[in-house]
Structures are given as structure tokens and as C-alpha cells.
Amino acid sequence: MGTPHTADFMHIISLIREELMNNADEETITTGQRFFKEEINSYGVRIPVVQQISKTRFREIKSAPKSEIFSLCETLFKSGKFEEGIIACNWSYGMKKQFAPDDSQLFERWIEQYITNWATCDTFCNHTMGAFLEKYPGFLPELKRFALSGNRWMRRAASVSLIVPARKGMFLQEIFEIADLVLEDDDDLVRKGYGWLLKVASAKRLQEVFNFVMERRARMPRVSLRYAIEKMPPEMKSEAMKR
Q1: What is the distance of C-alpha 146 from the center of its chain?
Q2: Distances (CA, A) of 90 to 16, 84, 108, 168
Q3: CA distances (Å), origin 63, targets 6, 16, 60
Q4: What 3-state DSSP class applies to 100?
Q5: pLDDT tens, position by position, 36-88
Q6: CA–CA separation, 96 vs 123, rounded Å?
Q7: Which H/E stretch holds residue 211?
Q8: Which residue among 2, 59, 134, 202 is least enclosed by CB atoms within 10 Å?
């Protein structure tokens, strides 16, 4: 069986959209919107169903060239539909074994242009960006640029791209550098993003994260502090919460 042609790929997109419409319901739109402050453009399909559609259709295209799959991801992202964005995140992560250094520019552009909510940001950055950075740690300094962006999702991405490496005890110095850059950020989702990152890092590097928090607790927003110390022992939490 030969490699499918571009026209066949677009047929897959049409099938995905048909499946999403067939599985949509108004109640899911209403329920889903409660998790977001910003307006979500959604079909109204439950996430487990979206994930199943994503997996089934990915099996049909996974042997295609990476460039073609990334082109399909772009098409899905461009739609602005929440569920299509999640599928694009999944498919890009599915190509992790083929990631190359020059993919960084494409991934950055996707975050900047197409990510408009925390769920898509976290799905893409935890997985695709996390895997890319583990493979090419030379790109870690680029996250500092993300952290200084005027785009809130780029700033959240700077932190949440390191969540999975942090679970493995990796990149602690870079984690602290990013947290310092966004320490007093005005955006609640950026604050929660780096607080979450510090919490995850604390599982493997408890004392270092505790010391970092203690040195900055006077300046750290309450929500970031609470996230950061959530998994720490009670005596550390009590100490950190003293103002």
C-alpha cells in the first residue's frame, strides 16, 4: 500500500469534522465553557470522545511524511475549534521520534497564532514542547524569550513546556530562571502556570524548590505560592505561608 496523497489527508480532516459534529451536544458546550474565562469555540464533544477520534484517525496517517502531518495539524489549528486544536496537539506529539531542531520555529508560531485557552496550551506544551526540549535542550534559552512575550499563552508556555521534564527532575536551573522572569506577572494563568511547574519540580527537588520559594515568597503572588507548596510537607507549607 502506497503513501496516501494530500487529497486523501484532507479527506481525513473532513471525516474528523463529520465525526465531531455527530458527537456534539449543547450541554457539553455549556459545561465545558465553565472551565474557561475566555470564550471557547467548541463543537461540544466530550474529551474522551475527541481523544478516541484523534487516535483512530492518526493510525490512518502516521506513516505519512512529517511535513504532511504537520500541515494537517496546521489545518486543524486554523479552524479555531477547540476539539480540532486538541487533535492537532495529539498528532504533533505523535511525531516526537521525528522531531528536528528546525521544528522549534513552527511550534513557536503555533503557540503564538493558534493557542487561545489554557487547555490547548497545556496539551501542546506539556507533550509536544516537553518532548522537543528533552530531545534538544539547546533550545531551553528560547523559553526565556517566551516568558517576556506580550502574549499570555507564550508566557504560560514558558512554564508549562517544562512540566514533564520537571517530573523527571530535569532542568531545575532553567525552571528557576523562568519562574523568576514571570514571578510577578499580572496574568492569573501565567501565575498558576509557574506555580504548577514549581509544585511538580518539588516532587524530585524538594529542598531546592523550597529554598527558591522562601527567598521570593514576599514578592510571589498568593496563587503561585499556594500552587508551588501544595505537595510539600505540612511544616514546610506552614513556614512558606508566613508573611
Answers
A1: 13
A2: 14, 10, 16, 21
A3: 13, 18, 8
A4: coil
A5: 888 889 999 999 999 999 999 999 999 999 999 999 999 999 999 999 999 99
A6: 14
A7: helix 206-216
A8: 2
| φ, ψ at 149 (rounded to 5°) | -70, 155
Entry pTM? 0.92
Cα–Cα distance between 45 and 8 in angstroms, integer? 24
Q: How many CA atoms lie within 13 A of 82 on its CB side?
A: 22
Query: CA-based Rg of the chain, rounded to a whole angstrom?
Result: 19
Length of the chain: 243
Question: Could you tell me if 134 and 106 are in contact, meaning their C-beta atoms sit under 8 angstroms apart?
Answer: no
Structure-block grid coordinates of residue 35: 472551565
In this model, does residue 24 exceed pLDDT 90? yes
